[in-house]
Write a structure and sequence with these properties.
single chain, 54% helix, Rossmann fold
Length: 136
C-alpha cells in the first residue's frame, strides 16, 4: 500500500478553509487517490486539528473532522518518536511539532508528505507534495 501522510494544514484548510482552497485540496487529493495513494494522519494531527474545535465546543466542526478522518488510516506514535524527531528538526530544519509529523510518517512507511505549509517543500526524508493555496 502506498501511504501519503496528510499534514494538519491540509485537514484544517479542507474542513475550515475557504471554498476555493477546499477545491484546490480536493483536486490534489483526488489526483493522489487516482494514482493509488492511501491517506493517513497521526494522533499528532488529530490533536492539532481538534484542539480548537473542542476548546470552542464547536460540535459541527468536530463532526466534520470525524467524517473526514473516517477513511484515513490513523498512525500511532512509537518508542523513539521524540528522539527521532529531534534528529529530524536538525536535519530538515523544522520546528518540533513538524518534525514529530515527519518522524511518524517516515517510521510508518509513508512515501509522500502532503502539506500546504511551504517549509515542507524541501523535505528530503519523504517526497513532499506541496499544495500551494496562494494561487487559489
Amino acid at each position: 500500500m502506498k501511504l501519503a501522510y496528510i499534514d494538519s494544514s491540509v485537514w484544517i484548510a479542507r474542513v475550515e478553509g475557504l471554498p476555493v482552497h477546499k477545491r484546490t485540496i480536493d483536486v490534489c487529493l483526488n489526483d493522489l487517490s487516482k494514482e493509488g495513494w492511501s491517506f493517513c494522519a497521526s494522533e499528532a494531527v488529530l490533536l492539532e486539528v481538534m484542539a480548537k474545535p473542542y476548546r470552542d465546543r464547536n460540535t459541527s466542526v468536530i463532526q466534520a473532522y470525524h467524517e473526514v478522518f473516517e477513511p484515513a488510516t490513523i498512525l500511532k506514535g512509537f518508542a523513539n518518536l521524540f528522539e527521532n524527531a529531534l534528529i529530524i528538526t536538525h536535519n530538515e530544519n523544522l520546528k518540533a511539532m513538524d518534525a514529530i509529523h515527519v518522524s511518524i510518517a517516515f517510521h510508518c512507511g509513508c512515501k509522500r508528505f502532503v502539506s500546504t505549509d511551504s517549509h515542507f517543500k524541501n523535505l528530503s526524508l519523504i517526497v513532499p507534495v506541496w499544495i500551494d493555496l496562494r494561487t487559489s
